Amino acid sequence: MSTTYTLDTSTSRANPTPQPMKRLSVPKIQRRKVDGVTSEPVVMLTAYTARMAQLLDAQCDMLLVGDSLAQVIYGLPSTIPVTMEMMCNHGAAVVRGSYHSVVVVDMPFGSYEASPQHAYENAARILKETGAAAVKLEGGEVMAETVRFLVDRGIPVVGHVGLTPQAINVLGGYGARGRSDAEAKKIIGDAIALDQAGAFAIVLEGVLEPIAIEVTNTVGAITIGIGASAKCDGQVLVTEDMLGMFERTARFVKRYHNISENIEKAARDYAHEVRNRSFPGADQLYQPKK
Q1: pTM, full prediction
Q2: Is 121 a catalytic residue?
């Protein structure tokens, strides 16, 4: 049966013309990995607003509404202060702005650690209020029971091991993880525990490459690297880092653009025209009808 789409051409900033594409699903992402091999790597970027989601959606398989919005959007020193309200509001905006990608929302610090039941209540709230397909939480073996509790109750989960920003007060910094044999063993064990608990994907952040490769070859879940290895099943970056919005970024960030310079130039040109009264010009003004 064919489907005919009627697109509204009278678009606005809030609601541009939608693209007629079917949204990916968690099972489709899971099926990318067959017998330990992912032939088509998973593309993931962060998004916090509807407009950014619109721009990224067609190129991505997954959009992450990360608690990195703490620094990127709110100018906070870490992800610790992020609230459920922040994640739900931004998650809903990203879902509204996307038509194709699986949208994953980070569970903020303090929203899932106390007990599996506590985690379920907050995860359910996130999915209800945002329309997202999955949640992401940090922690390895200690969170496996919670992951299983969520998955058994219909909530897809993305795990996160290695450098876990919500644990920055314990880790003491944002350096690479897995440099000692004990830490490397723990990261691998954490990933295996999450995989066995039912996480469909696991973010490996800031870990030594051999660890990332071993985890990828060991677990059935999709591994998503960020400062890990190109041999992971997929990759994620903070979009604003990738676009060059910030001067300081982690070593693992590759800048694909330097958009901050373009913004600064546009603001400088605008300020100049305002001050010399050349803006607004005839094209931007309304005149009486003759």
Answers
A1: 0.91
A2: no
